[in-house]
């Protein structure tokens, strides 16, 4: 899991370094070249925002004992991202003012500045919507995990109950077997006693027969 986060970190470093370089070049360019660069930076910032959301999701999945370290690193990346957006905003406003001044004059520049402000607010709302969507997805996934855990617990409970039933059945069978063995042992003892008594009687009869026979002579 942490290896995925570190991969995102590398992508973040590459993107932000490129964005920083391009923001620094915006004031030095003009015309179509500057327009393309501004659009390119805007697109890259959107990629960084998506990357940050992925990093945030990864941090949530990291075990608690290691999460604090990654959370701190993520906060520093968010601060860096905020700084980049502010720098780009200043460059973009300056660029927009320059274009408006060239095309429409100072009066139109004021109106366009308000439009840029509205666009910024719209972007903030879009980012908030994306964060809410990501939070909702996490909540749904958490609910699914909870349902799976409850299902596993229910299944484990049924297994334990079946094991208890088998133990009770085995105990009952052992008790029954014990009673049968006790009865068999009692019968064996009774049979041995009976054989002993019959043997003693038979021996007594033989002795008496011999005695009377010898006496008759």
Automatic annotation (TrEMBL):
One of its GO terms (molecular function) is SNARE binding. Residues 34-94 form a coiled coil. One of its GO terms (biological process) is retrograde transport, endosome to Golgi. It is a single-pass type IV membrane protein. Its main location: membrane. It is found in: Endomembrane system. InterPro entries: GOSR2/Membrin/Bos1, SNARE, T_SNARE_dom, v-SNARE_N_sf, Vesicle_trsprt_v-SNARE_N. It comes from the Eukaryota. SMART domains: t_SNARE. The chain crosses the membrane at residues 193-212. Residues 117-184 form the T-SNARE coiled-coil homology domain. One of its GO terms (cellular component) is SNARE complex. It holds the Pfam family V-SNARE_C. Keywords: Coiled coil, Membrane, Protein transport, Transmembrane, Transmembrane helix, Transport. Belongs to the VTI1 family. PANTHER family: VESICLE TRANSPORT THROUGH INTERACTION WITH T-SNARES HOMOLOG 1A (PTHR21230:SF26), VESICLE TRANSPORT V-SNARE PROTEIN VTI1-RELATED (PTHR21230). This is t-SNARE coiled-coil homology domain-containing protein. It comes from Alosa alosa (allis shad). The lineage of its organism: Eukaryota, Metazoa, Chordata, Craniata, Vertebrata.
């Amino acid at each position: 899991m942490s290896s995925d986060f570190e991969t995102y970190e590398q992508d973040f470093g590459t993107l932000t370094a490129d964005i920083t370089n391009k923001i620094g070049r915006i004031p030095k360019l003009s015309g179509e070249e500057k327009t393309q660069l501004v659009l390119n930076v805007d697109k890259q910032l959107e990629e960084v925002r998506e990357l940050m959301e992925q990093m945030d999701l990864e941090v949530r999945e990291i075990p608690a004992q290691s999460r604090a370290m990654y959370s701190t690193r993520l906060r520093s990346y968010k601060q860096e991202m905020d700084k980049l957006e502010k720098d780009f905003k200043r460059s973009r406003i300056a660029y927009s003012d320059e274009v408006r001044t060239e095309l429409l004059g100072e009066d139109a520049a004021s109106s366009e500045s308000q439009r840029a402000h509205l666009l910024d607010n719209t972007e903030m709302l879009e980012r908030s919507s994306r964060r809410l969507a990501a939070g909702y997805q996490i909540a749904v996934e958490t609910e699914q995990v909870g349902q799976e855990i409850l299902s596993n617990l229910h299944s484990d409970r049924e297994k334990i109950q079946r094991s208890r039933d088998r133990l009770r059945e085995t105990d009952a069978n052992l008790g029954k077997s014990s009673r049968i063995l006790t009865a068999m042992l009692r019968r064996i003892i009774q049979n041995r006693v009976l054989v002993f008594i019959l043997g003693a009687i038979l021996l007594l009869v033989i002795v008496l027969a011999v005695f009377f026979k010898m006496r008759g002579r």
